[in-house]
Amino acid sequence: MKRNWLGFIGVLAFFLMSGVVLASAALADGAPVMMLIQVKGDVQFSKNGSEWKKLDRNKLLFAGVQVKTGADGSGLLINQVDGTQNTLGGDTVVKVTDKGAEALSGSGLSAPGKADGTLLSGVNNRFTQAQRYTTVRRSVKKDAGSEEAKEDGEGKEGETKGKGPKIHTAKELTAGPSFSELVWENPGPEYSYELVIDGQSQTIAGSQGPMVRHRVSGLSAGSHNYLVILKKGDAVVFKPRKPGTLHWLDDARDQAIQAELKSLESAAPGDQFLAGSLLESKQLIVAAMDRYQKHLEQHPDDNELRPFLVKTYHDLKLMALKKAAAAEYLQKMEVK
Fold first, then answer.
1. Domain that holds residue 153
2. 289 belongs to a structural domain
């Protein structure tokens, strides 16, 4: 159990130190101040102090949020501002301020103590990237040379061989035996694709849905050139000018990450969000995206976490999904 807990602390340390981003709408409320973990028994939270919801999982807490425990309720509060922690016992109500937790009633909130490990290092500064990932631009049409086009991976980076849409893939991507899927944007089921890895190509049929997913196998550990050519029938519609780089994990590294996920699952069963954070720390962006999607499907009220998903869409060049998720995030922030 100690081993599992240490693994969990490692993931939590990454989460608190990672380049997490939130939009300017969220910054009006400040960055998340605390994270509540090890939730047991009767624990509830409220954004306004009047409407309460049961809490049975790890939760990011922003300033103004209140947490209350029943007689058997408990948890551990990790402070992102100063790297301290408080234990939370039963029959207590606490309010999160911009500095930490403040007891409103009860005696279950401990004095702050130093959190295990180095949990913080200027994390608040990293929230300034927010608008880059969650701002929805009003302009729908883009010129090839525009700043938006450049950020979305369009413009001079690609070489069009015909009339039609463009698709782009991540410039750098990590995958491996257990995390073998590549993804790219799907402009429509009438298109097919030629995936070229180190000069070896294979044809991939068109599909439904907003993205194409394809499992890769048989690669040696190390870096490989890859690109995706968009086709309609036999005609090339779009071909990137430069290939991206696919970093393939060796078996030992792949198995080590699997072990970390297993350890995390033992310490925080079913926590898709923390699993996504762990995978993102390993640059396994496709797998991280999948976990963030699952978390938000299970907990749609966790809108403050949606920017994590938006960022994975951005990194994977899934621009339609990115813009839809960013719009949903901003809309929910306005009506919260």
1. 147-248
2. no
